[in-house]
Design goal:
313 residues, disordered N terminus, 11 helices, 3 strands
């Protein structure tokens, strides 16, 4: 009997409503999200290429940034094409298997990004608080280790949360008022007890988010104390400028994440939740390369050299 239920669960379809409540905005939304996706792909790929070919950018900070861009590229590719498909097609159904797969890869990217942002905060902490030891402390071996930990952490978090979904049963086709397969989709669609799964996601998600957030906040606390002790105004400005891009990226990422956690569940908040989810899943991966390219002189200089090289060629 148990095997039959499991087999049935994989035949059940979810119908992601997305933004079908607003048919008059279908074409504008499709064009908007398509533009955002193209910018996101080009921005993140461009960032990876620029960092790879420019020796001046072969430093720990840009090493982490190249991996952050790769994760953002993967994340936007996991989420946005399905959103575009739902806007373009009348059939908005998705199989349970496909939904779980999308969720699993998306969670992997999010968890990796939290650790990557924490590693970048630690890099800024060492660079500003212990500049004389920076080259020794942030060795290539340590940087590779931190990146490896980030990817392993993402995989572990994804496996745990995916397994907590696989124990659920899905008895019939469900209409989901969402555009992406997030955890709440499976909880609302399940016809079995979800208490265990809810407990797992609360523990694991909070552990992943708040542990990395504590590392980031602690790093910046020491950074700000060190900057305030500097006697030179020029030195303070330079120190602040080296942190500006990363601090902006952290604020955008965690701000959107905490915003979604804080929205109360109600009918009136559904549109707000969708807008917040769009910002978090679609807009944020596009913003990171823009933040680092617009606020970072080294990246702007490298991009200008690459552009001049192409024109000359």
């Amino acid at each position: 009997m148990l095997n039959t239920n499991k087999n049935q669960s994989f035949e059940v379809m979810f119908i992601l409503l997305g933004f079908s409540d607003y048919p008059e905005f279908k074409v504008p939304l499709f064009l908007l999200f398509l533009t955002v996706y193209v910018v996101s792909v080009m921005g993140n790929m461009g960032m990876i290429v620029i960092i790879k070919i420019n020796p001046k950018l072969h430093t720990p900070m840009y090493f982490f940034l190249s991996h952050l861009s790769f994760v953002d590229l993967c994340y936007s590719t996991i989420v946005t094409p399905k959103l575009l498909e739902n806007l373009a097609m009348e059939d908005r159904s998705i199989s349970v298997n496909s939904c779980i797969t999308q969720f699993s890869f998306a969670v992997t990217c999010v968890a990796i990004e939290t650790v990557m942002l924490a590693a970048m905060a630690y890099d800024r902490f060492v660079a500003i608080c212990y500049p004389l030891l920076y080259t020794v402390s942030m060795s290539p071996k340590l940087c590779a280790l931190l990146v490896t930990v980030a990817y392993l952490w993402g995989i572990i978090i994804s496996v745990i949360l995916t397994c907590s979904i696989l124990v659920l049963s899905f008895c019939e086709t469900k209409i989901i008022d969402n555009f992406v397969c997030e955890y709440s989709v499976f909880l609302s669609a399940s016809c079995s007890d979800t208490h265990f799964s809810e407990m797992v996601v609360v523990i694991v998600a909070n552990l992943s988010v708040f542990c990395t957030l504590i590392i980031i906040l602690s790093s910046y606390l020491f950074i700000f104390v060190t900057i305030l002790k500097m006697h030179s105004a020029r030195g303070r400005h330079k120190a602040f400028s080296t942190c500006a891009s990363h601090l902006t990226a952290v604020t955008v990422f965690y701000g959107a994440l905490l915003f979604l956690y804080c929205i109360p569940s109600s009918k009136n908040s559904r549109l707000v939740m969708k807008i917040g989810a769009v910002f978090y899943t679609v807009i944020t991966p596009m913003l990171n390369p823009l933040i680092y390219s617009l606020r970072n002189n080294d990246v702007k200089e490298a991009f200008k050299k690459l552009k001049d090289f192409k024109i000359t060629y």
